[in-house]
């Protein structure tokens, strides 16, 4: 039987996490004596991991501080975010229905995200999505992360372990950013881009193989790519 795998980005793809990330960023900035940057700014900064998000927040609010101050602010960010991980974060419309349908068709599903693995697993647990995924690989899980293709390959390796080492005949990435598209292309996988995520580049300009506006369109997009 043909074995197929689908890797999903998390923030901006499966879950609208920007409001809680913005709250954590503004909290850390405030503790460091900086002005808030707000939700709209944070939406375009998500995708490279928590540390990079806070770095962008500092640059947007006056520039990078001294290293000691930054590390203190980063700890503040993590403490706040862990406590408010899913206050307002919610799956995008149609996510649960789509994942259930894909699992029913025996696709192997995984999360491949630059978000720290522990926070990713906790978020998926709190939103009731964890059981859909055979692997969750975060930005701190491996020595590399997206856009490095090793992040894709490492996620597939863990997913194959979940499937008792069965190799996949076909796999695809679903994401919202240049990191997702570039990692997928470098790994030799097609990439479906969602139009509603977090990106500074227009979704239709990211270079994905298919663009969808709702998760109800994912199955047809995957079929068109051979999945």
What descriptors fit this protein?
alpha/beta, Rossmann fold, DNA polymerase, domain 1, 6-stranded parallel beta sheet, 44% helix, elongated
Word description of this protein:
- With 227 residues, this protein is of the alpha/beta class.
- It folds into two domains: 149 residues, Rossmann fold (3-Layer(aba) Sandwich), CATH 3.40.50.1000; 66 residues, DNA polymerase, domain 1 (Orthogonal Bundle), CATH 1.10.150.
- The protein has nine helices and eight strands.
- The strands form two sheets. A six-stranded parallel beta sheet has the order 5-4-1-6-7-8, with helices on both faces. A two-stranded antiparallel sheet has the order 2-3.
- The model has no long low-confidence stretch (mean pLDDT 94).
Annotate the secondary structure layout.
Blueprint: E1 4-8, E2 15-16, H1 18-31, H2 38-43, H3 50-60, H4 67-83, E3 90-91, H5 95-104, E4 108-112, H6 117-126, E5 135-137, H7 149-162, E6 170-175, H8 178-187, E7 191-194, E8 210-212, H9 218-224
Parallel strand pairs: 1-4, 1-6, 4-5, 6-7, 7-8
Antiparallel strand pairs: 2-3
Brief rundown of the structure:
Helix content is 44%, strand content 13%. With 227 residues, the chain is an alpha/beta fold.
* Average residue pLDDT: 94
Shape: elongated
Order of helices and strands: EEHHHHEHEHEHEHEEH
Radius of gyration computed on alpha carbons: 17 Å
Reported for the largest beta sheet, the result is: 6 strands, parallel
